[in-house]
UniProtKB/TrEMBL annotation:
It is an enzyme of class 4 (lyase). It catalyses: L-aspartate 4-semialdehyde + pyruvate = (2S,4S)-4-hydroxy-2,3,4,5-tetrahydrodipicolinate + H2O + H(+). It is found in: Cytoplasm. NCBIfam families: dapA (TIGR00674). One of its GO terms (molecular function) is 4-hydroxy-tetrahydrodipicolinate synthase activity. This is 4-hydroxy-tetrahydrodipicolinate synthase. The record marks 44, 107 as: Part of a proton relay during catalysis.
Amino acid sequence: MFRGVFTALITPFNKDGSVDYGALRDLVEIQIAGGVNGLVPVGTTGESPTVTHEENVKIVEVVVDQAKGRVPVIAGTGSNCTDEAIQMTKRAKEIGADATLQVAPYYNKPNQEGFYRHFVTIAETCELPVIVYNIPGRTGKNVEPETILRLAGHPLIAGVKEASGSMAQVMEIIAKRPDGFAVLSGDDNLTLPIVALGGDGVVSVASNLVPGRMSAFVKALLEGRMEEARRRHYELLPLFKAIFIDTNPIPVKYAMTLLSSLSIQEVYRLPLCPLAEDKKRLVKTVLEDLGII
């Protein structure tokens, strides 16, 4: 199930700061038409830190309803409080989500045993497949390969979104994982090496903008067409760099305001704020050069 391109959906906001559910439904349709393999609402790219728990669940509900089973939905329902994560994940399961993305607990920085117990408790209490989200740059602590591999032995821990930036860590997990445990890149620009080494795909920010191109790129990788995959990687590399010129999802959300196919507002919730003008010019130039706008 967890193989290919899974779009880390942005959360569109109206000018008054409320969630724009109509634009979200349009975005889901564009993603599915573009051939992505799944949708990941309310992750980092979906501004999960600043949506309320009720909004979080409602966003998942809208995405599940709009997807109508055409692609799996991996609901971002993580928290650094295990009980909160369980509450939201239970609701996501009731709504019809296919799996849950669970970020490594942030700020309280548990030890490795704490990480293990956190993820297993959520999986066993909610009985929904868990994708572990390891992103130490945001959470302050790495989920070590030994812990990921220990978790991989649990039947309800389905995979990991690896955003540690450490290829040594990714290789160790891929080399030692059990069959059926998915390893997904958490960085668009590391998709090629991770999949080439045996990974299963990517949870992608860039596919918000170019779902078709990202799908073709990863499909070529998974099918072993490396020359084509390299060509597509280098074509998209300026985009991968541009959408991380500032804190995600600020650049990608600005870029999406430039698309004629969607009505996205350049609205964030504090402490996120709009992109500086010089960075806007850079992003716009990249989109023009790639024929995206």
